[in-house]
Specification:
six-stranded parallel β-sheet; 12 helices; 2 domains; five-stranded parallel β-sheet; alpha/beta; Rossmann fold
């Protein structure tokens, strides 16, 4: 008999979805009308042994409590800040995620956003489309990257991959995180505030957690300054969004390029109305290749667990 799996979100990979159907008895909560989900869930919950979720959705203690036989929560993504890890640990439920396979695509997007902000690509696209170029209107100069300082907040796999790409554009690097990275030639700032003061571009790549909540605050944004640019591909919770909007409005912060937000997919109208921002809808890992690789790692972790084999990427 196949293990029963509660699927909270679909994978965009058809092959991954086919494998899930092959190896598991899947119950797809995401397919149910919202008003019917509670009753539907009550019918399937007693026999669910595994949960497939995403970094954005996670799993709360209330849902976990409805699943008496659950053994594993497999997260399709890196972040586990939306997973109630205290509840999973108390129940002895193992958690996996998908690190490594999305590093390059997320780092690529970080540099894409940084370049788009530096060269004002969205504004220049509009300039062509609305006829301003043809009408002979003046074009404001943009900024080169070479010689500028790229400060990276969070210097794990993704942060280091961002650094490699930034150096290829002639930028110099600094980083900050509480634990120093051994063996790297990149200098570590004494604090996040010091990193912002030294940076022309501050890229946020740290994990979301209570410890990092709103660490990019008004003081950090002021230190980055009116010529500085904030790039966030990590979690919206790391940035004080109200303080950022105020700084962008008042031009005490030059620009922001954001793939993540505090209350996704709800982006404040005040932020959407600003011209000195570049906004994307949390698509750092959204390529065909990476989303398949992430889904495959989810399947492989689930199969390993139910086959009694070691997990490939457990969250510890």
């Amino acid at each position: 008999m196949k293990p029963e799996l509660l699927v909270l979100a679909a994978s965009p990979s058809a092959d991954v979805m086919a494998q899930l159907a092959q190896y598991f008895e899947c119950h797809h909560l995401w397919q149910q009308p919202r008003e019917q989900q509670a009753a539907w869930l009550a019918g399937v919950a007693p026999n669910v042994r595994g949960v497939l979720t995403t970094g954005a959705i996670g799993i709360k203690a209330e849902l976990l409590a409805q699943l008496p036989k659950v053994e594993i929560v497999a997260v399709n993504g890196i972040g586990t800040d939306a997973v109630d890890l205290a509840a999973t640990r108390a129940r002895g439920v193992v958690v996996t995620n998908t690190p490594g396979v999305l590093t390059d695509d997320v780092a690529d997007l970080a540099l894409t956003l940084l370049l788009a902000a530096a060269r004002r690509l969205p504004a220049l696209d509009t300039f062509v489309r609305n006829g301003s170029w043809e009408a002979g209107k003046p074009i404001a100069s943009t900024r080169a990257l070479r010689g500028k300082v790229c400060g990276i907040y969070g210097f794990g796999r993704i942060g280091q991959a961002i650094g490699d790409r930034a150096q290829a554009f002639g930028m110099t690097l600094q980083y900050f995180q509480p634990r120093a990275i051994e063996g790297t030639p990149v200098p570590r700032a004494d604090s996040l505030l010091a990193l912002a003061e030294a940076s022309d571009y501050l890229v946020v790549a740290a994990p979301g957690s209570p410890a990092t909540h709103h660490t990019v605050n008004a003081a950090v944004l002021a230190a980055l300054g009116p010529q500085g640019t904030l790039v966030n591909i990590a979690r919206g919770s790391l940035v004080d969004e109200d303080a950022m909007i105020a700084a962008l409005r008042e031009h005490t912060l030059g620009m922001a390029a954001l793939d993540v937000f505090a209350d996704e997919p709800r982006v404040p109208a005040a932020l959407r109305e600003l011209e000195n921002v570049v906004l994307t809808p949390h698509i750092g890992s959204l390529t065909v290749e990476t989303r398949h690789a992430m889904g495959q790692l989810v399947v492989d972790n689930l199969r390993a667990h139910f086959d009694g084999k070691p997990l490939l990427t457990p969250v510890v």
